[in-house]
Amino acid sequence: MTASPIPPAPFEEHKVDRFGFGQNWLDYQTSIDEARLLAARTDIERWLGTTSLAGLRVLDIGSGSGLHSYCMHAMGARELVSFDYDGHSVQATKGFHHKAGAPASWTVTQGSVLDAAFLASLGTFDLVYSWGVLHHTGQMWQAITNAAGSVAPGGTFFISIYAKGPEYPEHLALKQQYHRASLSGKRRMEFDWITERYALRAKNGESPEAWWSEGKERGMDAYCDLVDWLGGLPYEVATLPELVQVLRALGIETRRSRECPGDGGCHIVVGSRPAVHSDRGVPAGPSLQPAAAARRIALRRSRR
Ligand SMILES: C[S@@+](CC[C@H](N)C(=O)[O-])C[C@H]1O[C@@H](n2cnc3c(N)ncnc32)[C@H](O)[C@@H]1O
């Protein structure tokens, strides 16, 4: 007689070992200046291929500091919803909401991407942005599935996910060690990490001090990124082909991507859900998809 298999324990989100991302974001907020704002906005514009989100409903899942939500509001989003699991991240995002003059078109709230009922209550969006979030939920593939479900027909999905590689077990163990460490133990691990980076840069003939300027392309801060990296639990990873395949199964076609060459960095994917065409062949609603926009303009012109 074979033993009956023991069913896996149900996933309990609040019981997972989790880094306090939000406190790190509150600390980081104090260092944000115009240069960082510009860098963050430029990054979004470059990936989306547009400077305007006018007319679009936008969702920022895991808004963290709120910096990127702020940029998407500044890009003219018709309606913006930002949410995060961590109360301190929500507080940080509310700081940016306040900086923007507390517009009624921008809602900041607490919630989890794993909460399907919560997501359903928000409806669907023309742009769903979730940078560096879905791999920190404890159920990455479920989070990707739920987030993709928020993309409206003709909408865009913009995500980044940690790259899978041979160093995953080592990196996971490092994060677990950081999680267990005392405050002074954490500072020691950060110091050791920076010392290692300095040595590596010196070996490559680069200025060790220039480490502090790394990661600025999204308006980030090297030290804040380091704390986020060492602390970042839960931690899951994927290969780019895995992501592209799963997204396709979820109805999202990858339009642009950047594969991270090694462990520790993120793959970036911008995909879109095909538009639903009305019986007159006109895609419904505004869209970020250049082909759909071009078709709509051509159609309007041909009717004149
Ligand atoms: C590395 S930060 C990224 C923040 C921001 N998107 C950015 O690009 O700077 C990850 C964020 O995801 C949030 N997060 C983790 N699990 C989440 C969940 N289940 N639902 C929503 N947000 C979550 C964390 O609280 C944290 O603020």
Can you characterise this structure?
The protein has 304 residues and is α/β, with parallel strands linked by helices. The chain has helices at residues 21-29, 34-48, 67-74, 87-99, 116-122, 140-148, 168-180, 183-203, 222-231, 240-249, 290-303; strands spanning 57-61, 79-84, 106-110, 125-131, 151-162, 253-258, 266-272. A 7-stranded mixed sheet has the order 3-2-1-4-5-7-6, sandwiched between helices. Helix 1 (21-29) packs antiparallel against helix 9 and helix 2 crosses helix 3. The longest helix has 21 residues, at 183-203. The protein is globular. Bound molecules: S-adenosylmethionine (SAM). The site of S-adenosylmethionine (SAM) has 21 residues, from helix 1.
Question: How do the strands line up in the largest sheet?
Answer: 3-2-1-4-5-7-6
Average residue-wise pLDDT? 88
- The CATH C-level name of the largest domain is Alpha Beta
Report the principal-axis shape: globular
In the residues, how many domains can be counted? 2
H/E element order: HHEHEHEHEHEHHHHEEH
Please give a quick description of this structure:
The protein is 42% helix and 16% strand. It is of the alpha/beta class and 304 residues long.
What structural keywords apply?
7-stranded mixed beta sheet; binds S-adenosylmethionine; 2 domains; 304 residues; disordered C terminus; alpha/beta; Rossmann fold; globular
How are the SSEs ordered, and which strands pair?
Blueprint: H1 21-29, H2 34-48, E1 57-61, H3 67-74, E2 79-84, H4 87-99, E3 106-110, H5 116-122, E4 125-131, H6 140-148, E5 151-162, H7 168-180, H8 183-203, H9 222-231, H10 240-249, E6 253-258, E7 266-272, H11 290-303
Helix pairs in contact: 1-4, 1-9, 2-3
